Structure prediction request, 477 residues.
Amino acid sequence: MPEVTPAAPAASSEPQKYRPSRAPRTPANEEPAAERACDFRPVDTGYTKADAIAEANRCLDCKKPLCMEGCPVGVHIPQFIAQIRNEDWAGAFDTIKADNLLPSVCGRVCPQENQCEGKCILGRKGEPVAIGQLERMVGDMADELGSTPKRKPSNGKKVAVVGSGPSGIACAGELAREGFDVTVFEAFFTGGGVLTYGIPEFRLPKSIVKREIDSLEQLGVHFEYNAVAGRLFTADELFDEGFDALYLAVGAGLPRFLNVPGENLPGVYCANEYLTRVNLMRAYEFPEYDTPVRHGKNVVVFGGGNVAMDAARTALRLGAEKVTLAYRRTEAEMPARRAEIHHAKEEGVEILELVSPLEFTAGEDGFVNGIRLQQMELGEPDESGRRRPVPVEGATLEIPCDVAITAIGTKANPFASPASGVETNKWGYIDTDENGRTSNPRVWAGGDIVTGAATVILAMGAGKTAARSIAETLLSE
Prediction:
C-alpha cells in the first residue's frame, strides 16, 4: 500500500501573534577606547537597521507601557518600536517627531537609564530595551527619509524665544507647528546653546545639532544670532514690535567656584570656559582657529558629574598624558551617567576618590603646577540623600598638575532681565507656575533658569509645557 503524505495544514487567515525575542540587549557599536581617545570621533556609531530590528523584537509590547511614564516629553515609545519591528522607518520617525523634535540629540545624551529605560519592565530582572539607541537611530534617518516638517496655517500670533538651547528650541518648534510666527534670539553666533558649547563632539557631533536647527528653520522658526536680550532689546520693545508673548530659556551657566587659594592661577579653568573654548570656538585646532587653550600633560578635573567627565575626556583628546578625576565622595556617589564613567575609565581617566582641594600652587613660570588636597571620608547623609564627605583630620596630600579644571556645578546667570515684573527666587532662578508662566502675564520661562542645572530632556519638557500654555492663552484672546 503506497505511503500517504499528510496534507499541509491550511494557512490561517488570523494574523500571527507577536512574540518578543528572549535575546540579550543588542550591544552598542563603540569605537575602540585606545583609538577614540586620541581624537574627537563619536564614541558610539549607533545601531544599524538590523541591530534596531533585533532590539525592537525584545520589547514586550506591554498593555500598560511604563516606559512612557519615564519620558518627559511623552514619546509614544511602544508605537515607534513596533514600527521599527515592522521596518516602517518613516512611521517610526513621524511618531517620535510628533512629541520630540530632537530625537538624534536625546538618543545620544539623555539619561535613559533613569527615565524611559529605567521604567522598562525588562530591566527588573535583566537589561531594558535600548530605547535611546532606537530613538537615535530613527532620528539619524532624517536625511534618508527626506521628511518635511508639517505646520498649521499661520494664526497671526508672534512669539519671541530668548535662548536656543534645548528648552528654547523645543518651545519654538512646538509653537511653529501650531501656526505661530516664532523668532529665537540667541546671544552666541550659532544655535544650540549647551548642546553646542557644552557637549563635546565625541558625544554629540555639531552636525547633528545643526541638522536639528535647520529642521526648525524649515518649519518656519526664525533665528537671530548675536542678540543679547536685556542689552540690545527689552521685552517691552519686542511687544512694541508686535510680539504677543515671550519665552525665556536663557539657561543657568554661571560656574560655581571652589574658593580656595590659587584658583585664579593661569592654567586653572572652570569647565564652562574650557569646554566652550574647545567645543564652540575650536581651540583644539589652534592656531587655525585663534582660540588658545592650555594643553596640559598632567590634568586634574574636580567634580563627578557629566560635565566633569566631558572635561576629563576632552583633556585626553588634547594630548594629556595623565588625567585624574578628583571627587570628594566615592565613584559610587558620582551623579554622572554610568555609561560616561565607564567610557572615561575605559579611555584612561583615573579616578581619585575622597579628596577635596585646599590650594593650587604655582611654578616658577606663574602657572599652576600642583594641588594640595584634603582627604575625606563619608559621614551621615546630607539633604540629597548621599553620605556627606567630611575631612579626615591631619590627612592631606599633594599631586602635580599643569592644568586644573573645576566642574562642580553651575548657578543662575545674573542676566539683565529683558522683561520687567519677572520675579526670581533667592538663588536667582525665575519663579513660574506649573505651566511656565511668570509673574508677568506675557512672559513664560523654562529650563535651567527655572529648575537649575538639569537634563536636556527635562528642559525640552519645560519648553513643550510652556508652548501649550502660550498657545492656549494667545488663541483664547
